[in-house]
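ligand=zinc ion
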Amino acid sequence: MTNTAYETIIGLEVHVQLQTNTKLFCRCSTSFGAEPNTQTCPVCIGMPGSLPVMNRQAYALGLKTAVALNCQIPEFTKWDRKQYFYPDLPKGYQISQFDLPMSEHGWLEISDPKGAFETKKIGITRAHLEDDAGKSMHDEAAGRSDSRIDLNRTGTPLLEIVSDPDLRSADEARAYLSELKLLLTYLGVSDCNMQEGSLRVDANINLHIAQGERTAATPIVEVKNMNSFRAVERALRFEANRQFESWQANPVELGSPGGHKTTRGWDDQMQITRIQREKEESSDYRYFPDPDLLPVTATEADVASVRGALGELPAALRVTLAKKYGIDAYDADVLVNQGRPLVAYFEELAAACDDGRRASNWVQQDVLRLLNEMDATIDQFPVTAAALGELLKFIAAGDIDNTRAKDVLQEMIDAQSSAAEAMAKLGIEKVDASDLESLCRELLAANPAVVADLKEGKMKAVGALIGQAKKQNPNVNPAQIKSICIELVKQL
Amino acid sequence: MSLIDSPATELLQLLKSAEVTAVEVTQAYLDQIARYDGRVKSFLSVGSERALEQAATIDQRRGRGEPLGELAGLPVAVKDVLCTDGWVTSCGSKMLADFVPPYDATVIARLKAADAILIGKTNMDEFAMGGSTENSAFFPTTNPWDVSCTPGGSSGGAAACVAASMAPLSIGSDTGGSIRQPAGFCGVTGLKPTYGRVSRYGLIAFASSLDQVGPLASTAEDAALLLRTIAGHDPLDSTSAPVDQPDYLANIDQPLDGLRLGLVREHFGPGLDDEVGAAVGQAIKEFESRGARVQEISLPHSKYAIATYYVIAPCEASSNLARYDGVHYGYRTDEAAMLADLAEERKQLAAAGDEAGLANLDSPLMRLYRLSRSEGFGPEVKRRIMLGAYALSAGYKDAYYVKALKVRRLIRNDYDAAFRDVDLIVGPTTPTVAFGLGEMVDDPLAMYLQDLYTVSANLAGIAGISVPCGMTSTGLPVGLQLQAPPFQEERLLRAAHMFQQATDWHTKRPTLAAETP
Amino acid sequence: MSLSKADVEKVASLARLKLTDEELSTMTRQLDQVIQYVQQLEELDTSGVQPMAHTADLANVFADDLLRASLPRDAALANAPKRDDECYLVPPVLGD
Ligand SMILES: [Zn+2]
């Protein structure tokens, strides 16, 4: 427990849109941004007589995610109707999972390289498949009295991932979301685009406040309308403070009169949470098994084959990279957090130049900087790992220094050329060893003061010679100038 | 025998051999409808023009020697519970009075592919809820044998139109007896296939785990003909069974040697009408005389079937009918009047200082839902929605819904045990023959008890058929029910055919009076 | 157990129905009658019996994730009681 005298208890409910071509129960497109009501059919409009048929790929993606989240996969799962009336829910029920979800009891490990909290496993209560609702649009400003309903999104497959209330701070919540998003991205199950609603987060939060011997719990608040991870972090921080202040002013405990669960919406403009109007009546969803859908069974062999095909996931990959390429845990973390394609680029680069640390440095310092400048992803990066590897090999061989190599990389990008071509274009060529030596002799002869310093062991003095050498021939390698000069002085 | 009194199988031969044209056949049935349906009222809509057009096209194609579908030129009437692309599908409800589906039910698509002629959509109890067709939002259908009686239901129109020779074949749906009971009341043959045998895609749902589409016809042979076209696996219906489809007609003439018939002890108890019992007893003797061995069996949980059914069916119905909310299709209340009323209510509550009343006042959307649904649905549908919503609501679900699902398994287990000893189960279709119009409208429970012998087959998902097996002294038909294990429709039809080879009850037709001027 | 008018009113609201006082009385009486009848199930011992939601002994029915044509918008909206060129219209949906 921290010195704030209370502990924050947070659980997150994440809805992710699964990346399928078609909806969960019909074969309409799931693509975002189409004209309203152009991606609907009798099934997703809930027309009389229409029937759902489950999308094989949606189930497969859900299962893959559940397995990656270390969930237990029951042998038998079924789909239930969650019944409520809403204009964007044309069937009058959502097809979801109630008492026998497709996965339960998993975990996701989170850690903070900066050490704000201890590495810990966050429990996953369950992950289940359900269909999305449509959109209700209300534009009072336009003077419309009616709301407009667009059903394009209706029926899009969602995986609801519910965490246990294991998170203890807004930082941990943020870390959980980042790690979850990374995992989903690695799995290729969702594009996790929050702006397009592919990833939505609701949070349940309350406080445990020490009251002498016992602990008092504040009423649970469900926080909605958080449209970015940053918003989640801020909303939770705000809500924890608000609950504490509210407790101090008027200590109402969870479950006592007035201590029921409430829903608050995050106002990003005002940076506050606001109480949301309760639904028209206390909800009684009257769950029951959807008679139009059949159960799904999964054998241990099915689950094992899904597990076998997962590929290396972020947590394991961090360890592998650090070990295999001799890089720091921190660097491995940075690389892995950039996503699988960047890691692939790094690994190819490391193999090409046979130097993991050098590859790691170049990817982190140069490739990421350039990608950022270009506002591009690694797939769009114009220099292949093999081509960059060639350049790094020139550096390793001492043919070029790091600073010049950056110019070469820029030239490779600008002229779409190889490292050798770019170096030639910039007039960088390897200087012959005998030329180098004669140059060094000339410089030492012309700078007796430097020679004197060097004899006294003031090695820094050689810097002046390097400057002069570069003036005479920009292709010389400073490290080589340095070592030759020192060697020559020793012989004097 | 006139054209319209010929069995469909014979008509099909006449059409194939070009002794009659599809236009002649279609016109004959349309004439019959025009003459008598004013009294019987079996149709909600008759597609005269498109039927004749389609018939003409089929005749032309036949003339050119083109390949034709297996029902080419045969008119088929369809219960208005199946979606027909571009043709109003009302489900007997004000709610869907103007609903024009943008798609065909799979059964409709198969009929079209078979070049059957869709002659009209038949009347039914609203959303298939009822046993008399009096719950139709439009008008009741009458029994062609006695127009003061109901034809049964919910497929009352589908049964009556075949009985009155207005269509050689028709399609019904059966959730608790809705094909077999009206077939029994109207003296025609009606088959409820095994759950999953016929696609439900495009069948407007009443209770999804019980609903099944099936044929009504004059003979078992005709029912087999129609079943062959509509049955089979459909990838659009997850519950459709991926099983082989026999040719139900191929072996229908072969008698079932050594047939073992089970007689359900519980089906001959109190409540069974004497004349019905006698006719059924006679029918069983007929089977025995043809070599069948009859043995008494017990379905110990059958007495709980009605209670089980009237929990499960309303629960599913309350959910299936949630979609009718006046937003995406279907009936919607007069919005201006609704808003004006709400404003007035608000004013009065404010004037009275009734804070609680104001807080509880419906939002416009809530009121729109409630009025659209209350005005669009009839009383029986509302009763079942209420019953289902109650039985699924918090605190009651385990006691009613889950309990009923458990009893349902016991009922199925009874059948599985029984079918280890017998091939088919035989008994009455209904406790009584057709009852008078209006006789039971105020007593829902009494109406529900009519389903005593039929609901079990739906709960267990097995197949059942009703064939005419006698007449009462008042001239009303009696139905004999045969039930078979899952996917044994072929056996069921062969047994029914065997019975019809020996008897002529199925050939009897009512004398119809044209509409009184 | 018997059903009260208040119970029925609550269920009507849950089912989005609006009943007149007279309908409410009739409904209460009729539902109560059916509920009483249905309560005979209580006399059966069903412990250890698995609920049977489906009679079909099937599982794992899927469709492939292959795009099919959606309805043209006008066909989709054709049955809507109130619409504009693009959307279904309903009285204002406030809040979330
Ligand atoms: Zn669709």
